[in-house]
Hints:
Elements: H1 2-32, H2 39-55, H3 60-83, H4 91-113, E1 128-130, E2 133-135, H5 137-159, H6 161-171, H7 173-178, H8 183-209, H9 215-229, H10 235-255, H11 261-275
Antiparallel strand pairs: 1-2
Helix pairs in contact: 1-5, 1-6, 1-8, 1-9, 1-10, 2-3, 2-4, 2-8, 2-9, 3-8, 5-6, 5-8, 9-10, 9-11, 10-11
Amino acid sequence: MADLLQFVVAGLAQGGAYALIAIGFVSIFAVSGVINLAQGEFAALAGLCAISAAGAGLPLLPALLVAVAVVAAVAIAIERLAIRPVRRMTTLTSIILTLGVSTALKAVMLLIWGPQGHTLRAFPGSDLTVAGVSIRAQELWILAACALVGGAVWWFYERTLHGKALRACSEQPVAARLIGISLTKASLVSFGIAGVTGAVAGVVTSPIYSSSWEIGLTLGLKGFVAATLGGLLSVRGAILGGILLGVLENLVAGYVATGLRDAVAFVVLIAILLARPGGLVKHTEARV
């Protein structure tokens, strides 16, 4: 039983990181219908920026804030320079375009930070042992970040006028234009939100999983699977999907084989696409 609980706790923390990245996918897709395959690169870039800022002498908190701000700015620049100029943005076009952006970001990170991985120093806090289960302080930070950021994004879309206006751009774009809602500004805001959520995932996971130029692909694909579990339109669904995926990965790694950990995400994706293409969340609820 202790082993099972240990795998579940580790899976919850890992799933929290997937959930943060999945929220970024949902934030953009729910507004503009764009699938941003560069979402994982936001996490990798944030982790590396935070490590460099801390290495330059900044205290941990300012280093984290600098990293999040840099990545949010990069996300906004991508929207302005790569997404907005394309007049007819289909889902397939967005996949191809953002895949190119992802590759470019990888090349930049490889050039600046090199091929080796880097680790940010751990956040403050003491590890815990509860009922024989070891809980690292950093895992609690990941779960707290997921709860706070995920809750904030959900509240923004569900409870604020500006958030509802962003949702209207996807659901009723013509009506949104008629009442004066700017679709271009809505897309810009959604990319900014995605940049922040991806950056938070990158900085809180770096002390455990390290950061490197190539980690973004894995994080992005798993975040996409988590978002797909929620139907790509629900923040709550994305969080639940991320947690579920993280727990499943750790259970498979612990009880079957460690080498199968990364295969879990894609097996789950295939199963969901075959059984429930709309995701686990019902269509009527699958809204941010």
